[in-house]
Amino acid sequence: MAGVQGEYTFVPHVGIRAVGLAIFGAGFNSMNRDEYILSAIVTPVLHLGPELKILDTVLMLGLVYSYHHWESKASHPGVGGSRTVREGNLHDVTFGAGIGFLFKFADRFKVGINLWLNYDYGVVSTYTMRKKKGNRIILPVPLIEFTVQF
User: Fold this and answer.
1) Residue 95, beta-bridge partner list
2) How far is CA 107 from the centre of its chain?
3) 96 CB contacts (<8 Å, ≥6 apart)?
4) Which of 48, 78, 120, 134 has the fewest C-beta atoms lying within 10 Å of its C-beta?
5) Distance, CA of 3 to chain centre
């Protein structure tokens, strides 16, 4: 998983954050190596406890768009590879919420962890080897953050 984010604070202690994430297969969450998920999050951010000198606590609640490219593979016993039988894409717009704890170790540098709870869907394989959206689930996504302020 890899990502990038940017935040603009337009009034003290309140801002807007945009986050882009890419999750690549290779065994993550039962995805094969040719599958991937691209997500974009747009959320208002509330910085709590700004009077604290070393800790920046944030609350977030926003919209999430996700693009999931899936492939169904047919494996052959005794053969080292597998071939793609079916492939497709799933699109979804949903919401999520998060909390973050960032430690300020210099005037413009912070490091910490965010926990994003996404109201996402499970992926279900059908008997025709297609994948479709399943029931909604709460998906926790921990994110390590390194911040350089300009």
Assistant:
1) 63
2) 28
3) 41, 43, 61, 62, 64, 116, 117, 118, 119
4) 78
5) 8
The Cα 111–Cα 27 span in angstroms is: 28
3-state DSSP call for residue 137?
strand
| Residues 100 and 115 sit within 8 Å (Cβ to Cβ) | yes
Tens digits of residue pLDDT in 49-67: 767 788 989 999 999 999 9
Tell me the C-alpha distance between 140 and 143, whole Å: 10
pLDDT digits (tens, 9 = 90+) for 23-54: 887 655 567 778 888 999 999 999 987 677 88
Angle at 21 between CA 5 and CA 115, to 5 degrees: 75
